[in-house]
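Tokenised fold entry reproduced for absentees:

. . .
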Amino acid sequence: MEDNKLNIKLTNDPLNLSECYRFVVEPSCGGINAFVGTVRQWNKGEEITHLDFESYEPMAIAELEKIAKKAKDQFNTQKICIHHRLGKVAITEIAVIITVSCKHRKAAFQACEFIIDQLKKDVPIWKKEFLSNGSYWVNARP
């Protein structure tokens, strides 16, 4: 995708939904969809204190670009913004934001869902959950 149509960021800094929304606003689009993933307090009956995200950044950005291109081809997106936190992220803080603009709302919803599903499946960003009695890497424990 053209650089002015795609904004990808991995950062240790807090994420900003307004920034992501402003990036995807496009006069030709009637549908903007946003997904905001926050850190929840409970998972599988255990209390979470915070999460820690790590990534192999060059590969993660390359994979996110591939996912964005697929979304553009499949859903005719106009602009896509994907921002993901790295490092320590506290309860209720934003871990990921995806915003998408399309000519119509249905495609915007579908593209956003496609992107988050592919991100979780294919992008080398790893999540460690911290509990009051220990920690573990998600998907690294039965």
Observations:
- The first strand starts at residue 6 and ends at 11.
- The CA atoms of residues 24 and 42 lie 32 Å apart.
- The first helix runs from residue 17 to 24.
